[in-house]
Structure formats: C-alpha cells, structure tokens
Design a protein that fits this description.
With about 325 residues, this protein is of the alpha+beta class. It folds into two domains: about 170 residues, Distorted Sandwich (Glucose Permease (Domain IIA)); about 120 residues, Muramoyl-pentapeptide Carboxypeptidase, domain 1 (Orthogonal Bundle). The protein contains nine helices and twelve strands. Strands 3, 5, 6, 7, 9, 11 and 12 form a seven-stranded antiparallel β-sheet that branches. A hairpin with a 2-residue loop joins strand 1 and strand 2. Helix 1 runs parallel beside helix 3 and helix 4 runs antiparallel to helix 7. The longest helix is centred in the first third of the chain and has 26 residues. The structure holds zinc ion.
Length: about 325
C-alpha cells in the first residue's frame, strides 16, 4: 500500500505514537506560552511578530484516527498529511486566505480522490483530500474559514475523512500540519483558537464584540491593537486568568455567552461575525432572530455538533477555532 490514506497501520508502535504526538505538540505550545508570558520586557512589537495572528483557522472538526498522523508509514513512503475523521458531508474550510490553484481528482502526485490545493502565497500551500463535494471553483479567491468542500471518502480510503496537508517553501514540501497549525494558534480537528496581540480579522472582531458585551466598549475593527489588548487584560485579571492579552482557550471559555433565539446584544454580533467567517452570510445586527437561529442550526449540522440552535461553548469553539 502506498496510498496516502490507506488502511491504518496496525503495529503497536504507530497506535501509541499518534496520541503521544498530539500531547507533545500541545504540551510544547503550552510551555511556550508560559515562557513568553514570563518575559518581563516583552514589547507589543515583539508580540506583533507572533504567528498566532488570526490568519489561520481549523479546516474541519473531527478526530485523529490511529495511524493517520503525519509521517506514518505508507509502504515505501510516508503519510504526507494529518487525517481528520468525521462523516461524509462534514464541512471543510479554507485554513487560510488564498487562491484555489488545483481542483479535481489526483491533483497532486501520489494523492487519490477529489482534492483541492490552495496557495497562500510565500510558498505556502494547503491540500484537502478525499472530498465528496467541491464548494469553490478553480482559481477562486477564498477567505480564511470559507466553506470550500465537504468531507468524503473518494480515492483509496477505508472511510470518510479529510486528508489535510500543509506545504511550506514549495508545493511538495510538506510539514506536520498539527504543529504547523498549533504554531499559528489553531488546534487541528477542533478546539479554541489562540490569538495574540497584533492579530487581525474576523476572530478579533468577535473578541471585540464579546468584550463590549462584558462592559468595555470596543470598536469592532478586527485589529487586535493596544486598546483591545488592554481591555482583554482587564477582563482576564477580573476573572483570575493570566492577564497577558492572549486570547486562548481559557479566555475564550470565560468570554463567550451561551446564546439562543431571543438573545440580543454585542455578544450576538460576535457570534454572527464568527459564523460569517464560516460562510454563514447573515447580517451582523446583534439580534438572534430566526435567521441567526437557522444559521446556527445549519452550522451545527454541517459540523456534526448537536443541532439545538443554542450557541454554547462547543459551537463557539468550532466557529472561532
Ligand atoms: Zn491521509
């Protein structure tokens, strides 16, 4: 078997390597955060150089199957991506803004089934494999988080999953997608994102709306500059969190509200903004009416979450992750 996503390896080595790899990556990220927060003279310009800049996001919700990790043996070669398992039809999103440069069957040598390649500039590419449905055309310009395809089981696979690759330097130069995204504040497969001061984009706007709802009015301009950072630090301090201005899992979990039809306010604007990043296409009016209710349910459905119309922590994490 030399397929990228052939049957999972059955050796004990590979089975045990997968979860430990994930722990290692996450542990490394956590340790790095502590180390940076402990540097007293760190300036905002130093923070601005972070890769956790809001430009990357999770391409699909799911779990890591045994033997589906980057570098897993595949006959004479090795697995070039990370598999994320979920059911056929699960939404697949662009991991970052870019241009669809390949779309079709076996569009990268050695890959089988329907795939997409997005170019993100500066020699960076992402590949999405085994798709059931394409939701973008060839040469389309896509935004980070845009719904680009549906998960499937096309090509040589044993079941539906997304085969996700990150290429850095040139198309064909793959790197571990889990650590690549972790360095950019993204938990591949699902979970809260992390953004640092200097970040930009829709996720920052969602934070700004939420902070406004928490009592400090911010302009939702999508620019995570000093005014917004200071407001987040104030919020973190009041909640007993590390007041470093980094919006990570603990801060997100404290910041979001559980929202449902009838809710109104800046927090609903935050939710609507986050859903729009995932192609919901609704008005950001702060009114959780029937349109937003429908958008939340659709989002939950295509992401295989519990479809109850309530935007609780899992729905929020999926939307801003
Ligand atoms: Zn794969």
């Amino acid at each position: 078997m030399c397929e990228q996503c052939g049957p999972a390896e059955t050796s004990q080595d590979v089975r045990s390597a997968d979860p430990s790899r994930r722990k290692l990556v996450l542990g490394l990220g956590a340790g790095l955060g502590v180390a940076l927060a402990g540097v007293p003279a760190l300036t905002s310009s130093a923070w601005a150089a972070t890769l956790k800049d809001g430009r990357w996001c999770n391409p699909a919700l799911g779990y890591f199957p045994s033997g589906g990790h980057y570098g897993a043996p595949r006959g004479s070669s090795s697995h070039a991506g990370q598999d994320v398992t979920n059911s056929t039809g699960t939404a697949v999103y662009a991991a970052a803004a870019g241009t669809v440069i390949r779309r079709g069957t076996a569009v990268v040598p050695g890959r089988t089934g329907n795939g997409l390649v997005i170019s993100h500039g500066s020699g960076r590419y992402t590949y999405y494999g085994h798709l059931s449905v394409f939701r973008v055309s060839l040469n389309a310009t896509v935004a980070a988080g845009q719904w680009i395809a549906d998960m499937g089981a096309t090509g040589n696979v044993t079941g539906p999953h997304l085969h996700f690759e990150t290429h850095s330097g040139a198309l064909g130069t793959t790197v571990n997608p889990v650590s690549y995204l972790a360095a950019r504040g993204v938990d591949l497969g699902g979970g809260w994102s992390t953004i640092d001061p200097g970040a930009v984009g829709a996720t920052v706007k969602a934070v700004q709306h939420l902070i406004t709802q928490r009592g400090t009015t911010l302009v939702a301009d999508g620019d995570y500059g000093s005014v917004s950072v200071n407001a987040v630090k104030k919020f973190q301090a009041a909640r007993g969190l590390v007041a470093d201005g980094q919006v990570g899992p603990k801060t997100w979990a404290s910041l979001v509200y559980s929202l449902k039809q009838g809710s109104s306010g800046a927090h609903v604007r935050g939710l609507q903004t986050a859903l729009n990043k995932r192609s919901a296409g609704i008005a950001v009016d702060g009114d959780f009416g029937s349109v937003t209710n429908s958008a939340v349910r659709t989002y939950q459905s295509v992401n295989r979450l519990v479809v109850d119309g309530v935007a609780g922590p899992k729905t929020w994490a999926a939307a801003v992750g």
